Structure formats: C-alpha cells, structure tokens
Amino acid sequence: MIYDVIITDAAIIDGSGDKPFKADLAIKNGVIAAIGDLHNLSAKNKIHANGCVLAPGFIDVHTHDDIQVIRQPDMLPKISQGVTTVIVGNCGISASPAVVADAPPDPMTLLGKKEEFVYKKFSEYSAAVNAAQPSVNVAALIGHTTLRQNHMDKLDRVATASEVESMREQLRDALANGALGLSTGLAYASAIASDTDEVKNLAQVLNEFGGVYTTHLRTEFDGILDAINEAFDISTYSQSPLIISHLKCAGAGNWGRSGEIISKIESLAKDHPVGCDCYPYSASSSTLDLKQVTEDFDIVITWSTPHPEMSGRTLKAIASEWKTDLHDAAKKLQPAGAVYHGMSEADVRNILSHPLTMVGSDGLPSDPLPHPRLWGAFPRVLGHYSRDLALFSLPEAVRKMTSLSADRFGLSDRGKIGLGLAADLVLFNPLLIKDTASFSQPAQVAEGIEAVWVNGVLSYHQKQLTGERAGKFLPRSRDLRKGFH
Ligand code: ZN
Ligand code: CU
User: Fold this and answer.
1) Considering every ligand atom, which ligand is closest to the CA of 364?
2) How far is residue 323 from each of residues 135, 296, 329, measured CA to CA in Å?
3) Residues by chain with Cβ below 5 Å of ion ligand 1
C-alpha cells in the first residue's frame, strides 16, 4: 500500500486531553489510515514532524463566516491558525435561509450586503459551499433573527403564531438538510422583542431532529443570570442541548462575577447538557450598540458607513473632536462597528479555563479593522494562555478546540486523531506558536503553524496557502437528543 502522506516522528496530541505520544501517522483518501511506527512504509509525500505537535484540526465553533467561505474561499484568517472546520450561523444570524428585501437588519450586516443574501433555502447554501470548496469545512446553525426577518414586517414585536409557524417550517427544512441547530441573538434590537415563548415554540422543532440550541444571551451585563435561566428554559423545553455563546461578564458593573456564573452553569449541567464557548480576549466586538456606549472603558470604532475615516479611533476621541457626548457621537457614526474593551482579564481566564468551555473566535471577516480574534484566537490559546501563562495544559487546550467541540455539535468523524477519522490535521511548533494579530494590525498570520491538512489535503504549509482547497459542507452527523458523549 502506498499512502498519500506519512508524517513521521510527531508528538501526537489526539484531542482527548491525554498526554502527547510519539508516533507516525499516515493519510489515505482523506482519512487517517495508520498510526504507529511507519518508517518503512511508503507514501507519495513524507514529512518529518521536526519536534512539532500533530493535533486534530481546530474547530472554530463560533464564527460569522457564512458568506465569507463562499466569497473568499481560501479562508486564510482561519486555515493559518490551524482551523479546519468553521461553524457558521451564530448569534441569531445566518446567511440562509434568507430573503432580504430591504437592507439586512443589524446585526445581519456583519455577514454581508443585501445582494449577498441569496440562499432562500438551506440546501442552496450547502450546495454553494460545496461549489466554492473553501479551504475549511463548514457546518451551519440557523439564525432566529434571520428567520424573523424573513417572515415579519417589523422586528420590534413578538412574532404572531402564524409567523412562528412559518419560521418553524423553514427551520425544519434546514434541519432536514443537515443544519446543526438553531442560534439566537436575543440581546440585539432585531430579536430582543421576541419573548421566551416565541423562541421556545421555534426551538421545539430541534427535538424532531436532534439539533442543538446556541444563544447569544438576552444580556451579558448585570442581568446575565436571568438570561442564563431563560436559555436553560428554552433548551429544556425543546429537549435540546444548550450552548451559551461567547460567555463573558460584560460591563464594569459585572466584573468579578465569573465564578458565580460558572457555578450556575455547572449546576445546570448536572441535569441537562450545557456547554459554552469563549474567545481569548478581554475585548468584545460587534456592531456599534447605543446601549453599550459608556465612559467605563475604551470603545474603538472599526467601521462607520457615514464616517469611514473614523476607523481605528476611540469613540471618546471622536466625540471630543466633534464637541459632543459619546452617545451623540455614536449616533452620528451609525451604522458602525466597534471593539469594546469591556471585560476583566480575570473573568476571561476563569471562563476560558473551565472544562466545559470550547474555543470559538467570533471573528468578523467583513470588518475592515477586525478584532484580532479573527486571525489569532486559536494560537493565542495555545501560546499565550497555555504555554506562557500555564492556565491549562497543552492537551487540554487542544481538547477545547477539537473533541469537545465535535462532540457538542454532533460532528462525529472529526475532532480526534484515530483510525478511520477524517484527516483534518494541524502540525504546530509548541515552542513557537504565537498569535501576532493585534488590535492595530489585526490581519497577521500566526507564528508556529507548520502545516494544515483538510480532508487529507495539505492546504497551508510554512505560512503559505498551498492553493489546494478540500473543505466541504458538513451535515449534522449525530443525534444530540442523546446528550453529549
Ligand atoms: Zn454574539
Ligand atoms: Cu457571534
């Protein structure tokens, strides 16, 4: 037998959280075909690991790459971090199924322009992903806000029974065609008027298919415990696992509460499958939200439709130049995007290090000055938080971005190194790995990512795209009604 690839003398971290072991690994036809001492076997390509770690490709569980994977399929910001699968459709916004008649409502603007929302059915979206063949695999959630805007004339009210029925029909069709589940973004103006019953009635459909419920909570500020209770209520009602998106304690009044919030989630997780994701930074980013304007911390404008020249400047500096207050300056800038330096680092570490927490970037690919998480989230966890600060071991860091994530989202042949599993692999140097993306220079590839294979195809090597792309649409492959593994 001639293998496609043999990687020799690697320190294999298999995704389970176990210690590394020395072995060779062979790939054939897109899957992991052998692990062991393979020095005497032949392959079309042999690559020596040279002291590097070989791990399952990272799964970015929290992305807004819905349209980006088609628009710019090389996906350099992600493949250059060792990411081999992205989960799109988070925070209530998905590119499909969508019919956008006027301007897309905030925050669907984060995904793309009106003319880019062309996937009326989920099957059209998955076909477009496969046709574009991005460098990474794509699995998708369906956004509550997208469904609302498909069926409602105004988003500042609760949906009627017949509107909810239309939304359920679309969600059902998407789940039948491989969507992973439903996401909500209840904090945003486009969804905050929906009540718990609206979401419950929609989420109920998940249970027919074994899908997952993910949520950007109704608030991440002072009322976060009530918001977690609401999320739990929705997910238990629909008998579906719950994932809390980008868990954080937002706002100065809320700093120091991560212990309390984690205890709450631990106690809920005893009775029902509950998990969360987190990005490794103490600044958030989204559209500019007037409700979040404050003097407590810096807010940096990343884009503004009426004032593009203000990108990169603080709201405070803009307001003083305009001789107005922060609120009026923010109003004048809208629609706009912002980075909010609104978390405490201690809370970020506390949440990131918890065993239930997965890594997700929440990167915003359409932003002209994106938060550096778009390019740096995964290397930052491995380098800064695991190696430099010793917040957790390297195998634990890898588990948080591989097997835990695959398990939570029902991607059964990914997230681990094992015979017969998909050959989504990353080879990285544990001594050199480092995020280089910064707030002022965010578009930087990380140090220390040596090689990345997607479905067995070498896609990124020595800081270069190879030109080969082998990602595909990944349908939900496990019934999540059975809970997590
Ligand atoms: Zn969100
Ligand atoms: Cu998000």
Assistant:
1) 2
2) 47, 19, 9
3) 91, 216
Phi, then psi, of 365 in degrees rounded to 5: -70, -20
C-alpha 244 to ligand 1 mean position (Å):
10
Q: Say which ligand is closest to the CA of 244.
A: 1
CA dist list (Å): 422 to 29, 285, 406: 9, 33, 12
- Closest C-alpha to 295, from 323, 322, 325, 321: 325
Phi, psi dihedral angles at 412 (to 5 degrees) = -75, -25
CA–CA distance, 61 with 449 (Å, rounded to integer): 20
Distance 217 CA to ligand 1 centre (A): 8
The CA R_g of the chain, rounded to the nearest whole Å, is: 22
Span from the CA of 482 to the centroid of ligand 1 (angstroms): 27
| Separation of CA 215 and ligand 1 centre (Å) | 8
**How far is ligand 2, taken at its centre, from the CA of residue 107, in Å?**
10
pLDDT band for 480, please (50, 70, 90 cuts): confident
Question: Per-residue pLDDT averaged across 102-113, rounded?
Answer: 95
Average pLDDT over residues 89-98: 98
Ligand nearest 141 Cα, by number?
A: 2
On the question of pLDDT at 164 being above 70, the answer is: yes
Residue 482 pLDDT exceeds 90: no
Ligand closest to 374 (CA) is 2
Three-class DSSP category at 299: strand
> Letter for the amino acid at 138?
V
Distance (Å) from CA 190 to ligand 1 centroid = 13
The count of C-alpha atoms lying within 13 angstroms of the C-alpha of 209, restricted to the half-sphere facing its C-beta, is: 26
Q: Nearest Cα to 456, choosing from 8, 28, 16?
A: 28
Q: Is 117 exposed, middle or buried (0-12, 13-18, 19+ CB in 10 A)?
A: buried
Cβ neighbours of residue 275 closer than 8 Å, sequence gap 6 or more = 241, 242, 243, 244, 269, 356, 357, 358, 404, 408, 484
* Banded model confidence at residue 485, pLDDT cuts 50, 70, 90: low
Q: Range with the lowest mean pLDDT among 358-372, 411-425, 469-483?
A: 469-483
**Proximal ligand: closest to the CA of 187:** 1
Q: Are 78 and 38 in contact (CB under 8 A)?
A: no
Tell me the pTM. Answer: 0.98
